Amino acid sequence: MSKSKDAQEKNGFKAVDSPYLVAAGDFKTGKAPTTPPKGSPGEDECKKQLEKLVGKLDTLQKILYAHDHRAVLLVFQAMDAAGKDSTIRAVLTGVNPSGCQVYSFKQPSKEELQHDFLWRTTRCLPESGRIGVFNRSHYEEVLITRVHPELLDAEKLPDGSEGDPDFWEHRYASIRDHEKHLVRNGTVILKFWLNVSKEEQRRRFLSRLEEPEKNWKFEASDVAERGYWKQYMAAYEEALNETSRPWAPWYAIPADDKPFMRMTVADIVVRTLEGLDLKYPKVGKDERARFDAIRKKLESEKD
Question: Which of 46, 215, 219, 268 is deepest in the core (most CB within 10 A)?
Answer without folding.
Answer: 268
